[in-house]
Design brief:
The two termini are 23 Å apart. Helix content is 37%, strand content 26%. Among the domains are: 86 residues, ATPase, substrate binding domain, subdomain 4 (Actin, Chain A, domain 4, Alpha-Beta Complex); 113 residues, Substrate Binding Domain Of DNAk, Chain A, domain 1 (Sandwich), CATH 2.60.34; 96 residues, Substrate Binding Domain Of Dnak, Chain:A, Domain 2. The chain is α+β, with helices and mostly antiparallel strands and 642 residues long. The chain contains 16 helices and 28 strands. It is globular. Strands 1, 2, 3, 4, 11 and 12 form a six-stranded mixed beta sheet that branches. A six-stranded mixed beta sheet has the order 18-13-14-15-19-22, with helices on both faces.
C-alpha cells in the first residue's frame, strides 16, 4: 500500500492542507472544522496558540501574536521590503549577527527568539497534526507550495520549515502550477490558461498550456510583496487619518495611534473585515468603541473610495501579466481562459480589470482558497507512486522564475540559465581568467534580471584553486548550473586542463539556517508539541471539572430539594462555589493531577448525599464531539516528467 501524503498551501494569511485517497482529493478541516487555517501564531503566559485561536486573541495580545511571517522567509533584515513592513508589525523584529530577521516574543514569562522558518515550521506542524487526526495515522510526506516568483533562498527556507515540522518535503512546487492542476483536472480542457493568483501577501501570474494531459508552464511572473495585507494597511491608515481629521488631532497624534500596537491590531482586523464586505456591497461603516482616549471611531467607506485607496496596488497587478505574456511570446488574445485563485481575487475591481484587459470573463469555477492545496495533494501522491488511473496519465512541466548566473569582469551578471527555462535542467558555460598566471578564481552566483550583480540577489560563492599558471584568457573553466524539481540550484566548476573542480549546493549561506540550527529547531518543535499536548490535557481536565460543577448545580431541582433537605442543598452549593473559586484562582496553573484530585474530593463528598436518597447524578459530564464532514471533490490526475 502506498503511503498517504499531504499537500500544503502555506499561505501568507491562510493555510490549507489536503490529501488524495480513494480516488479523490479531500480538504482536511482544522480543529474548528474550518477548511482553511489563519497563518497566525500567538504566545501567552500559559500556552502557544496556532491558527484560529491565535487570530481571535490578536487584538488583546498584539506584541506576541505573529502574522505575515511568509513575507520575511528567506529575506535579510536589511532588505528594503522587510524594513518597510516593520511599521505594520505589532511584534518585535530585530537582526541577528548574519542580518537575518529574528522575531522576539514573551512566552511563559521569558523572552524567546524565533526565525521565520521556525514559525512557518510551527504552522506546518499544526497542519500535519490536523492531517494525522483526520487520517488516523502518522503523516511524514508532503508537497509544499510557494509563490512562483520565490527566489532560491525563499524556496530553501520553505524546505527548512518543512524539516523543522518533521516533514519529508517531497517537493516544493509553484502555487499557480498547483492551482492549474486543480483547474485542468476539473475541466479536462486543452488550451492556454493564465493563472492569476492574488493572495494575502503575494501575486503570481503563470501561463500554462494544457495539451492532452500535459501541463507545461510557459512563463511565470509576479510580485512576492503584493497582496491583500497591503490593502488592509492602506485602509487602516485612511481610517486613522479620517478619525484624526474628525477629532482635530495633529500628525503627532496620528503617528501615536499608528504605533499603538493594540489600537492598530484592532483596527486592522476591522479593515480586513470591511474589505471583504465591500466585495459584495457598495458601502460599509468601520466602527470601534472607545478607540482612542475614549472616543469612538466611525468611518464610512464606499467601494469607490476603497478602490481609490488601492489604485496603485491594482495598477501593479497588471505588470506581471504583461511580463508573463511577453516571456511566453503570446498576446492576450492567445489566452483561452483566465483563472482566478487567492482570496484577493474576490475583489470586484480585480475581476473588472482582468475582464477589460482580456476581453473575457475570468473563471472562478474552482475554490480560490483550496485549489493550491488540492493540486499539491495530487502532486504528492504521484511522487509516491499512487496507483490511480485518473492521475497516472498526466505530465507536469515547470519553469524557474528568475535568471541564474555568475559575476564576470566589471561586476556584470552573466546569465547561464535564463528565467522561465524548463526545470529540472542543467546548463554549462565556459569562462577564463582575467590576469596572467592566475591560479584561483572566485565563482560568485547570483539570480536576477539586472545587468550588474549589485542589483541582483547573491546566492553564494566558492573558490576554484590550483589552476595551472598561464597567460590570461588561456585556462578554460567550465561552470555548470543544475536546477532540481524543487527549483533549488547546484553549481560546479572544473578547470579543463588540470581537472581541478569544486562545487556548491546553494544552502547554509549567510542568512540561511545551518544544518545544526535546523536540527535544534526540529527538536524544539517536538518540545513545543509536547507542551501543547500537555496544555490541552490540562484544559480538558479543567473543562471536565467545570462541566461537573455545572451539572451538579443544575441538578438541584425542587424535587431534589425535597428529597435531600435544605442542609444538604446548602452543603452542595458550598462545594460548587468552592470548586468554582478554586478554578478561577488555580485553573490556569494547576496540574492535571491537582485538578482531578480537586474534582474527586468534591465527588467524594457529594455522591453519598445523592445516592443515599436514590436521586442520582452523573459523575462525569457527557460531552459530544461534533462530526466533521468530509468534502467530495472531483478526481484529478497528473504525473511527473523524468
Amino acid at each position: 500500500m502506498t503511503e498517504e501524503s499531504i499537500g500544503i498551501d502555506l499561505g501568507t494569511t491562510y493555510c490549507c492542507v489536503a490529501t488524495f485517497r480513494n480516488g479523490k482529493v479531500e480538504i482536511i478541516p482544522n480543529d474548528q472544522g474550518n477548511r482553511t487555517t489563519p497563518s497566525f501564531i500567538a504566545f501567552t503566559e500559559t500556552e502557544r496558540l496556532i491558527g484560529d485561536g491565535a487570530k481571535y486573541q490578536a487584538p488583546r495580545n498584539p506584541n506576541n501574536t505573529i502574522f505575515d511571517v511568509k513575507r520575511m522567509i528567506g529575506r535579510k533584515f536589511s532588505d528594503p521590503i522587510v524594513q518597510n513592513d516593520l511599521k505594520y508589525y505589532t511584534f518585535k523584529v530585530i537582526s541577528d549577527a548574519t542580518d537575518k530577521p529574528t522575531i522576539k516574543v514573551m512566552y511563559q514569562g521569558e523572552e524567546k527568539s524565533f526565525y521565520s522558518e521556525q514559525l512557518s515550521g510551527m504552522l506546518l506542524g499544526k497542519l500535519k497534526e490536523y492531517a494525522e487526526s483526520y487520517l488516523g495515522h502518522k503523516v511524514s510526506k508532503a508537497v509544499i507550495t510557494c509563490p512562483a516568483y520565490f527566489n532560491d533562498s525563499q524556496r530553501q527556507a520553505t524546505k527548512d520549515a518543512g524539516a523543522i515540522a518533521g516533514l519529508d518535503v517531497l517537493r516544493v512546487i509553484n502555487e499557480p502550477t498547483a492551482a492549474s492542476i486543480a483547474y485542468g483536472m476539473d475541466k479536462k480542457k486543452d488550451g492556454k490558461i493564465l493563472i492569476f493568483d492574488y493572495g494575502g501577501g503575494t501575486l503570481d501570474v503563470s501561463i500554462l498550456e494544457l495539451d492532452e494531459g500535459t501541463f507545461q508552464v510557459l512563463s511565470t511572473s509576479g510580485d512576492t510583496h503584493l497582496g491583500g495585507e497591503d490593502l488592509d494597511n492602506k485602509l487602516m491608515i485612511h481610517c486613522i487619518k479620517e478619525f484624526a481629521k474628525k477629532n482635530n488631532l495633529n500628525l503627532d497624534k496620528v503617528n501615536e495611534i499608528i504605533k499603538n500596537l493594540k489600537l492598530s491590531r484592532r483596527l486592522k482586523s476591522k479593515c480586513e473585515e470591511s474589505k471583504k464586505i465591500l466585495s459584495s456591497t457598495q458601502h460599509n461603516v468601520i466602527t470601534l468603541d472607545a478607540f482612542y482616549n475614549g472616543i469612538d471611531l466611525n468611518v464610512s467607506i464606499t467601494r469607490a473610495k476603497f478602490e481609490e485607496l488601492a489604485y496603485s496596488d491594482f495598477t501593479k497587478c497588471l505588470v506581471p501579466v504583461d511580463k508573463a505574456l511577453s516571456d511566453a511570446k503570446l498576446d492576450k488574445h492567445s489566452i483561452d481562459d483566465v483563472v482566478l485563485i487567492g482570496g484577493s481575487t474576490r475583489i470586484p475591481k480585480i475581476k473588472q480589470m482582468l475582464k477589460e484587459y482580456f476581453g473575457k470573463e475570468p473563471k472562478i469555477d474552482i475554490n480560490p482558497d483550496e485549489a493550491v492545496a488540492y493540486g499539491a495533494a495530487i502532486q504528492a501522491s504521484i511522487i509516491l507512486g499512487v496507483n490511480d488511473p485518473e492521475i497516472n496519465s498526466m505530465v507536469l512541466i515547470d519553469v524557474n522564475p528568475l535568471s541564474l548566473g555568475v559575476e564576470v569582469r566589471g561586476c556584470e551578471m552573466s546569465s547561464i540559465i535564463p528565467r522561465n527555462s524548463i526545470i529540472p535542467t542543467e546548463k554549462k558555460e565556459v569562462y577564463t581568467t582575467g590576469s596572467d598566471n592566475q591560479t584561483m578564481v572566485s565563482i560568485r552566483v547570483f539570480e536576477g534580471e539586472r545587468t550588474f550583480t549589485k542589483d541582483c540577489n547573491s546566492l553564494g560563492k566558492f573558490d576554484l584553486t590550483g589552476i595551472p599558471p598561464a597567460p590570461r584568457g588561456t585556462p578554460q573553466i567550465e561552470v555548470s548550473f543544475s536546477i532540481d524539481r524543487n527549483g533549488i540550484l547546484k553549481v560546479s566548476a572544473i578547470e579543463k586542463v588540470s581537472g581541478k573542480t569544486n562545487n556548491i549546493v546553494i544552502k547554509n549561506e549567510k542568512g540561511r539556517l545551518s544544518d545544526e540550527q535546523i536540527r535544534k529547531m526540529t527538536e524544539d518543535a517536538k518540545k513545543y508539541e509536547e507542551e501543547d499536548k500537555k496544555k490541552k490535557e490540562q484544559l480538558d481536565a479543567r473543562n471536565d471539572f467545570e462541566n461537573y460543577l455545572y451539572s451538579l448545580k443544575n441538578t438541584i431541582s425542587d424535587e431534589v430539594k425535597s428529597k435531600i433537605g435544605e442542609e444538604n442543598i446548602k452543603k452542595i452549593m458550598e462545594l460548587v462555589n468552592d470548586g468554582t473559586n478554586w478554578i478561577e484562582t488555580n485553573g490556569s496553573t494547576a496540574t492535571i493531577e491537582e485538578i482531578k484530585e480537586k474534582q474527586k474530593s468534591i465527588e467524594k463528598q457529594v455522591t453519598p448525599i445523592f445516592y443515599k436518597q436514590n436521586s442520582g447524578i452523573p459523575e462525569t459530564p457527557n460531552v459530544e464531539t461534533p462530526n466533521v464532514g468530509k468534502p467530495n471533490i472531483k478526481k484529478p490526475k497528473i504525473e511527473e516528467v523524468d
